[in-house]
Amino acid sequence: MSAHPWFAPLVKRVRTANPYVVDTALAALVLFAVSLQWIFPDEGDDRLTWQGWLLGAATAVPLVWRHRAPFAMACAVSVATPAQALYHAPPPDVMYAGLVVLYTMAARGTPWQRRFMLVGWTIGVSLVMTHKESPEPFEYAFQLMSVACAYAFGVLARVQRAYTAELEDRARRLERERAADTARATAQERARIARDMHDILAHAVSLMVVQAEAGPVVVRSDPARAEAAFDAIAGAGRDAMAQLRRILGVLKEEQRNGTSPQPGLKALPALVRQVGESTGLRVKLNTTGDPLPVPPDTDIAAYRVVQEALTNTVKHAYASSATVELDWTEEALTLTVTDDGCGPTGSGSGPARPGGGHGLIGIRERAAACGGEARAGRGPDGGFRVVVRLPAGDRQAALG
């Protein structure tokens, strides 16, 4: 553990260093190890000749090309090492360059190169030891174990490199998937905000337009009614601004600081009353069944659906009355908005009023986002009808 603080940075520096510099340093280190018998000669029977040193150097110098031409380097060392052993002046006590070759081939070679080098060096070591004068039994085991260990370390390095590459690739894939999920969530949130702003502004502007058109007509004949119309315009504008602030407050996370939540089913009576008072449209709200708690997104969607349907009635239907019905069951909440007007196509077949917008598309998108469905068309007694079915969900799940 005490060696870890300095050993880990050293390993990282070696891995990130120029491979040619590392190979040259490795070749110099092996050449130094091979030359130790000449630098510190002992009193043994092994002869020391300059031809023997050249053969030893021939096992070390090819390591300079370990990364540039690994298989050619391995072949050169594989020829020089047994030549030095057979020349016997002196014989190699440890196959330094051979261990590097086996490690390199096991770590970076192709499958056939790895098998060729492992089998070749195992056979070569066995034959050289057989022709050695008076070999000790432990020498067989030492040389063969050296071959096996060097190859095993190379295999471990290759497996670790492949595992690291797989982890890095998986991390890159997860990062791409996370970015894609973030982009999808952002797009969905923008679409939701766009729908909310469309519904709020379309509703408010529609009420303002109706009152603004009526105001000049009655400004002289009925000043009180004209004043009420202008008050309705101001009220619709203030309500739109308040709801827009709520939406923007959610974006800025101001809801934690007391920003009121978006309106839901509990605000429908106020919406119906506002539409009736502002436009003169007779709007009734009927509820059947026992109301159930619903998820927040369904609660907001239900309010926006009714708001958009009434906006379409005011803008396009030329209706005198409308009915909002809430039908509760254990499985779903069904919203039905019906008017007695001419619908979105004039008197049944004529052109729609300019600027019809995308209200029905927004209603369908809201219903689909909550797992529900929406239908729109002419009512059974004329007029226009919008029917939206939203899943109410399990009572306990909604409460939880």
TrEMBL record:
It comes from the Bacteria. Keywords: ATP-binding, Kinase, Nucleotide-binding, Phosphoprotein, Transferase, Two-component regulatory system. It catalyses: ATP + protein L-histidine = ADP + protein N-phospho-L-histidine. Residues 297-394 form the Histidine kinase/HSP90-like ATPase domain. Residues 339-360 are annotated as: Disordered. Its EC number is 2.7.13.3. GO terms for molecular function: kinase activity. It is an enzyme of class 2 (transferase). It comes from Streptomyces justiciae. This is histidine kinase. The keyword Kinase applies.
